[in-house]
Write the structure tokens for this entry.
Amino acid sequence: MIDDLKTDCRHVNWDRPCTPHKRRGKQCASCDEYDPIRHRVLMVKLAATGDVLRTTAFLPAMHRTWPGARVTWLTRRSAAALFAGNPLVDEVLVTDDAVTAARLATEQFDVVLCPDADPEAAVLAAMAKGRERRGYHRDERGRIVPHGDGAARWLAMGLSDARKKVNTETYQTLVARVLGLDPAWVTEPILEPSAAERSSASAFVQRLGTPLPLIGLNTGAGGRWAYKQWTLEHQRTFLRLATAAGFAVLLLGGPEEVARHHELLNGAAGLPVFDGGNDNSYGRFAALIDGCRTIVTSDSLAVHVAAARKVPAIVLFGPTSAPEIELYGRGEKLVPTGLDCLCCYLPRCDRVPHCQALIEPANVLAAVQRWAGRG
């Protein structure tokens, strides 16, 4: 009978039997897997995929702050697959779905979290019905409204190059204050490859047939800031130096790096340099990074994947903030010296040589050797 249904249990599916009933024959009235939802939490986080991934570091803090929480995460469709296998997110909503708009208009959340002053995220947070709001929302005049001192500070930093440049705190610390969470409860990001993705990546690495320790070189940096990407010439030189030092190198990148991978492989003919592919799922990309001793990357998605998988990362910085990136004690940040324009957040600049061109391959290799245990 419907009267026996525990409607506050997180296992309830509404349109089909729940998993405990389907798999183990449990009856709702007497079920020992009853898991009541005590808080309904909505996280609104859009932005770049890497930025979405690093924000998953707040999930343990969210669950400690709201025990028994059911967490719904609203993001862009391109980032939705990041949450496959994430045990701390109950459901993912995407922005280009009419059902999402209907649910925001009808459902009540105990708390709505919006860590960004992004107008699109903030208007979605304003649309959602929440008994409590943390972070930001967009008001009826189109203004971004911060909730609390931490949110006001992060908003001011985002609007001021000067404040951004003098900041020394990580994103995790800053945004924990935005959301009113204890920074001590923030952990690494969460990205869990499936068993099939682990098996596929492991088999791929085995087929390489190299006995040499494997280093990942993430060749791209996204399209927003051109000079986050290490130069092609430096990447070519690094491949020669790294292989001469006794490493094999796995090229990592997305669809935008297909041409670059071809160029790098052509220039490294006969060397233990391998292409990891450009169409990996997020989970398989993470599983490939699992197979590396360390990775070399710009400030991009790969940094946060490496953090999630606890793989040391050598990170090359230029136009974005080095202090904001948390490496969790694994890896190094390499920042060019002698420039007063770092952390400019300019899409392009006319400085010659530009910041990434000043990061020498020999220095990158030295950092790799320190973290790969071959120095």
User: Anything to note?
Assistant: The domain at 37-185 is CATH 3.40.50.2000 (Rossmann fold). The CA atoms of residues 231 and 357 lie 6 Å apart. The first helix runs from residue 19 to 24.
